[in-house]
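Practice problem 4.
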């Protein structure tokens, strides 16, 4: 096995194909509503992370109903993950949060994945989720945007949080025995390969259960696009991206599930996206290189205390 693929993990865990159904809530983000800032992260587009979402005006139950009908019919699946994808889905009043999440607990939903920022994790909300998991037997995974562990880069990205908030969130979420998925951009031009390796090591040390890697596409009408057009940033090469992704995987705990290796965005909304190469072709190139290098996820992973194993 080259790496711990999400599709296989889902098949093993739930015994059949499972699809993630995106859900869109009328929420915002503290980095956009003025609490931390108005501009947002330099790469974030107006629509946040979801390009294929239904309107947030539609209730959670109805969004699920429509998605289940469409995906179930076209892909023959009966098990689904309710995925609260856009913006910061814990950044809303507690009662509203409880209502939305509870609405997602319906037949066929085997897990709920909730995207949010590392600085939007409150104990009360996690306690509710832990209770729900127990009561309904539904898995819960918190998807946290980390992007990089280099706190200088986090500042340049205008994330509005540093590495410390991610560490705090991971410790807090684990206290409630919920899953964590870290989102990570492996090809940030401000980072180098050492940052990416350190990222894999920190994610592993914190007991994160899944990672979702992104490649840096440049959306129109973002600060990143303006920096790009002024020549202030230059995407790294495709070869460097492949190399960084492999180094990341090699240092990652082999038990961590890899949701994906490459980000995607509609070409018409970007000025740069994945070197004009489809995500599956890029994935093939990474996998072929791993075979050529005879390497795999976790090949260079060492648990923090691994030296101690040698002396007793
Ligand atoms: S935290 Fe997420 S939603 Fe908020 S500005 Fe950054 S990328 Fe956009």
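Answer key:
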């Amino acid at each position: 096995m080259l790496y711990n693929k999400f599709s296989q993990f889902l098949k093993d865990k739930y015994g059949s194909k499972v699809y993630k159904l995106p859900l869109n809530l009328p929420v915002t983000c503290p980095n956009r509503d003025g609490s931390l800032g108005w501009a947002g992260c330099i790469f974030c587009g107006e629509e946040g992370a979801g390009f294929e979402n239904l309107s947030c005006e539609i209730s959670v139950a109805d969004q699920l109903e429509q998605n289940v009908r469409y995906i179930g019919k076209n892909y023959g699946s009966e098990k689904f993950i309710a995925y609260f994808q856009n913006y910061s889905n814990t950044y809303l009043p507690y009662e509203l949060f409880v209502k939305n999440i509870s609405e997602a607990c319906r037949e066929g939903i085997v897990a709920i994945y909730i995207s949010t920022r590392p600085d939007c994790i409150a104990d009360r909300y996690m306690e509710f989720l832990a209770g729900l998991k127990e009561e309904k037997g539904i898995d819960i995974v918190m998807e946290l945007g980390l992007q990089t562990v280099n706190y200088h880069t986090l500042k340049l990205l205008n994330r509005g949080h540093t590495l410390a908030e991610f560490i705090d969130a991971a410790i807090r979420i684990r206290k409630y025995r919920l899953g964590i998925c870290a989102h990570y951009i492996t090809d940030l031009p401000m980072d180098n390969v050492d940052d990416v390796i350190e990222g894999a090591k920190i994610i592993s040390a914190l007991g994160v259960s899944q990672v979702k890697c992104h490649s840096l596409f440049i959306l129109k009408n973002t600060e990143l696009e303006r920096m790009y057009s002024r020549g202030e940033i230059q995407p790294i090469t495709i070869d460097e991206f492949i190399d960084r992704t492999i180094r990341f995987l090699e240092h990652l705990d082999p038990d961590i599930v890899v949701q994906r290796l490459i980000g995607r965005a509609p070409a018409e909304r970007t000025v740069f996206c994945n070197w004009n190469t489809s995500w599956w072709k890029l994935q093939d190139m990474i996998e072929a290189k791993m075979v050529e290098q005879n390497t795999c996820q976790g090949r260079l992973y060492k648990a923090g205390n691994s030296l101690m194993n040698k002396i007793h």
